[in-house]
Amino acid sequence: MDRHVTFDRLHNFRDLGGYRTDDGRTVRWRLLYRSDSLGKLSGVDLDRFRALGVGTVIDLRYPWEIAARGRAPELAGLTWHNLSVEHRPYDQATIDPALDPWRYLADRYAEVAEDGVDELRQALEVIAAADAPLVFHCASGKDRTGLLAALLLAVLGVDEDQIAADFARTELATERLVADWRALNPDRELRWPGYGRAPEAIIRHFLADLTAAHGSVAGYVTDRLGVDEALTTRLRERLLDR
After folding, report:
1. Residue 223 pLDDT
2. Which parts of the chain register pLDDT below 70?
3. Residue 163 in contact with residue 203, Cβ under 8 Å?
4. 3-state secondary structure at position 26
């Protein structure tokens, strides 16, 4: 199966199917997607999106980002949720180039894991309850989306190496994400050379930090997010093959 779904204006839309779990099952294909902003959907891209049969969209951006850049089109049968998981905004274009970029981003992820527990738990509940294909996204489909993807895959029993490899697939879109930023900000300087990058090191730092603080990623999901066995079972029943 082709993990990357081709669009003209979306650069980071891909399928989370096919990953193996610790009990020998596989995440089902064509049921769960991650993406950059669906506010860019129009024309032929919109037709391609409709063909996927998506019934639920989770938008992880701030409301002010949605007001500025648009949300997913209102389509018949499509349910839209805005769950803004990040509570401490920062501008990636202005990150100090002298900082360790991957440690810096992992620290921002740690803030999301601390501040956004309600929204992250709600996102998992929405995913478990959906009865059609679902996509979750932020602006670039990299950081907030990558964090949620990592936690979800961990709940499903996918190991860290596969989670890290999925995270790093955003690197295939980096050049186009940078081009988008430059087109939207012609009068600004992109100071940070790591903009649009997503090496495995970021998510590995983040998962290691959760493990150090909570004993394991599962410990964080249970203790901080409040994900109980019933929700875990619903997610696995819905998203894993039999």
Report:
1. 96
2. none
3. yes
4. strand
DSSP-assigned states of every residue in 52-78: TT--EEEE-S-HHHHHHH------TT-
Q: What is the DSSP letter of 39?
A: G
Cβ atoms of 62 and 86 closer than 8 Å: yes
What does the pLDDT read at residue 242? 78
135 touches 57 (CB < 8 A): yes
Judge if pTM exceeds 0.90: yes
Q: H helices of 76-215, where?
A: 101-115, 117-129, 144-156, 160-168, 174-184, 200-214
| Cα–Cα distance, 186 to 207 (Å, whole number) | 36
pLDDT digits (tens, 9 = 90+) for 140-163: 999 999 999 999 999 999 999 999
Please tell me the predicted confidence (pLDDT) of residue 93: 97
Buried-exposed string 58-68: b where 16+ CB fall within 10 A, e elsewhere: bbbbbeebbee
Q: What per-residue confidence (pLDDT) applies to 1?
A: 77
Q: What are the backbone dihedrals phi and psi of residue 14, each rounded to the nearest 5 degrees, phi first?
A: -150, 160
Q: Which residues pair with 4 in a beta bridge?
A: 14
Cα three-residue angle 43-47-49, rounded to 5 degrees:
110
* C-alpha–C-alpha distance, residues 34 and 75, integer Å: 19
Count Cβ atoms below 10 Å from residue 242 Cβ, excluding itself: 5
